Amino acid sequence: MKTPLTDINAKQAGVLLFSILIVALCGIVYELIIGTVSSYLLGNSVHQFSLTIGFFMFAMGVGSMISKYFDDQFVRNFIFVEIAIALVGGICSILLFIAFPMARALYELVMYSLILIIGALVGMEIPILTSLLAQKRSLKESIANVMSLDYVGALIGSVSFPLLLLPSLGLVQSSFAIGLINILVATINVIVFRHYLRHYHAMLLSCIGILVLLTGCIFYGTVLTRFAEKHLYFDQVIYSTQTPYQKLVVTRSTTTREQRLYIDGHIQFSSRDEYRYHEYLVHPVMSIPGPRKNVLILGGGDGLAAREVLKYDDVETIHLVDIDPEMLRIANELPMLRRLNKGSLDAEKLTAFSQDAFSFINEPGIDYDRVIIDMPDPHNEAINKLYSREFYTMIKRRMTPEGILVSQSSSPFFTRHVFWCIEQTLDHVFDNTLSYHTALPSFGIWGFNMARNNVAFPADIEFNIETRALTQASMQAARNFDKDIAKVETTVNSIMEPKLYHLYIEDLRR
Questions:
Q1: pLDDT greater at residue 155 or residue 168
Q2: Which of 350, 372, 384, 510 could pair with 318 in a Cys bridge, judged by C-beta atoms 3.0 to 4.6 Å apart?
Q3: Start-end ranges of CATH 2.30.140.10 in the chain?
Q4: 3-class secondary-structure state, position 309
Q5: CATH code for residues 234-269
Q6: What is the pLDDT, as a whole number, of residue 1?
Q7: φ/ψ (deg, to 5) at 487
Q8: Residue among 52, 33, 38 nearest 161 (CA)
Q9: CATH 1.20.1250 intervals, the chain
Q10: Pick from 249, 407, 265, 272: which is nearest to 326 by CA?
Q11: How far apart are CA 405 and CA 276, in angstroms?
Q12: Looking at the annotation, which residues are catalytic?
């Protein structure tokens, strides 16, 4: 070394303090990326984030302990750690997407390996930087500066990920971008502390090489994302975007031309049989005698349920509530979706609201004669609230005395306890419920639950509109449940005791 370590000047100390802020930011974002990818692919976000955070913190502790065995070449060690984090963290997202279709065990091996490696490397950074700053300031002052900047960096990272990185770059490019920031920190430290480095030129070239690599990944991120999505969805991806709320992907089979919509990795419909689902969702609740002037659709941003409701001439008002404005936009503008929904979102009777359904229904407004709940399956705690006792109670207050509600209720075969938990929760709020199911080639057996007050459901339902699948006889048969999907005793789902999404995970494991 050309200069003794004790000669760190104020400028160099400032660079170290800035580095602490940035590496803390990067560390928390890697944590959030891995937790988010796992939530998208495996569901149960509380479970995934809890495991990710727990193992990450554990790995940081291990990394901190390992750092005490390093030699006193603090600058060199810090730069090596940053280079390693940039490489591993930069590719973590795409590695997870590639591993997922192969096997669940392989995905979890990759996931936990990434958590432990990145966590350990992040844990090494703080002791190294504290030791460096202690050469200029007292140990007490160094620890105070390091920890305060570490917490500030974590705050910036945790806020910027959902508000900036995820909506603008998506998961794959976000990990590349954060890896790029790590390698920029390493490069700056190589230049600023070049007098302390024996192999300055080799380290600088290494940093520049990785910098170029990750920059290229950023510019070609769309191509890499498409590669990961093709690997994940198998079919051709014709539309993909990450919104502030969810990941929207539309695919098309190169052989059958079948088109599918995925939200957060979960299939929502297939063009091959979506008409069956939407006919069974909409027409039973719409065909029961009684007023149907005002109709509310919660979810259903694809416009397919609205297409079926528009078949009833006496409907005067349709309010459609979907939290994601991008879903409503592509349903109206993407040719494939617009062709399927027949331009339903442009109908004069329909008004679309880009709003959370829970908030919308809790606001004052008109009372509805028919309510159609077309939400995704309750695979996480955020969606759980839309199948809760509290939510149904709020809907009941916004229904006319003759009003009728229907909810898609997952599969009574694959998620039997979930289906009957939804029925049990509706039965807790309303006087009468009616359960039924149908067969969908893309999903298997699928179930629905209706609920109303005061009046019992009729023994038979007649349909006076054009359908492709649903008939009076098939609806009558749909009300009969075989022994293996018959009703089971479950609890009532509520916000205070969110049982439903736990049942969803347990049912899938069974």
A1: 155
A2: 350
A3: 234-269
A4: helix
A5: 2.30.140.10
A6: 43
A7: -60, 135
A8: 33
A9: 5-230
A10: 249
A11: 19
A12: 374
Residue type, 272: R
Is 380 in contact with 391 (CB distance < 8 Å)?
A: no
| Predicted confidence (pLDDT) per residue in 159-179, tens digit | 998 888 887 888 888 999 999
* DSSP line for 264-304: TTEEEEETTTHHHHHHHHHHHHHHSSS--SEEEEEE-TTSH
Q: Alpha-carbon torsion 337, 310, 282, 370, what sign?
A: positive
85-105 average pLDDT score: 86
Q: What is the CA radius of gyration of the chain?
A: 27
Kindly report the three-state secondary structure assignment for every residue of 389-457.
Answer: HHHHHHHHHCEEEEEEEEEECCCCCCCHHHHHHHHHHHHHHCCEEEEEEEEECCCEEEEEEEEECCCCC
Amino acid at 138: S
What tokens were used for 32? 């959030």
pTM of the model: 0.76
Which residues neighbour 236 within 8 Å (Cβ) at sequence distance 6 or greater?
230, 251, 252, 253, 254
Residue 221: CB partners within 8 Å, gap ≥ 6?
Answer: 169, 170, 172, 173, 176
CA gap 448, 405 in Å, rounded? 10
5-230: CATH class:
mainly alpha
Contact 287, 470 (CB under 8 A): no
Q: Are strands 294-299 and 317-321 parallel, antiparallel or unpaired?
A: parallel
> What is the 8-class DSSP label of residue 263?
E
Q: How many Å apart are CA 124 and CA 120, to the nearest integer?
A: 6
Annotated binding site for spermidine: which residue ranges?
A: 278, 302
Q: How many helices (H) and strands (E) does the chain have?
A: 19, 11
pLDDT number for residue 112? 94
Annotated binding site: 246, 278, 302, 322, 356-357
Residues in contact with 450: Cβ distance below 8 Å, sequence separation at least 6, in sequence order = 284, 285, 404, 405, 406, 433, 434, 435, 436, 457
Residue 422 has pLDDT above 50, yes or no: yes
What values do phi and psi take at 252, rounded to 5? -140, 130
Note the pLDDT of residue 3: 47
DSSP codes, 115-150:
HHHHHHHHHHHHHHHHHHHTTTS-HHHHHHHHHHHH
What residue numbers does the annotated binding site for S-methyl-5'-thioadenosine cover? 246, 322, 356-357
Q: Where do you find CATH 3.40.50.150 in the chain?
A: 272-509
* Domain 272-509 bears CATH identifier 2.60.40.1120: no
Q: Distances from the Cα of 341 to the Cαs of 61, 302, 416, in angstroms?
A: 53, 7, 30
Closest CA to 123 of 67, 179, 74: 67
What is the arithmetic mean of pLDDT over 11-22?
Answer: 86
The answer on pLDDT for 312 being more than 80 is yes
Output the pLDDT for position 43. Answer: 67
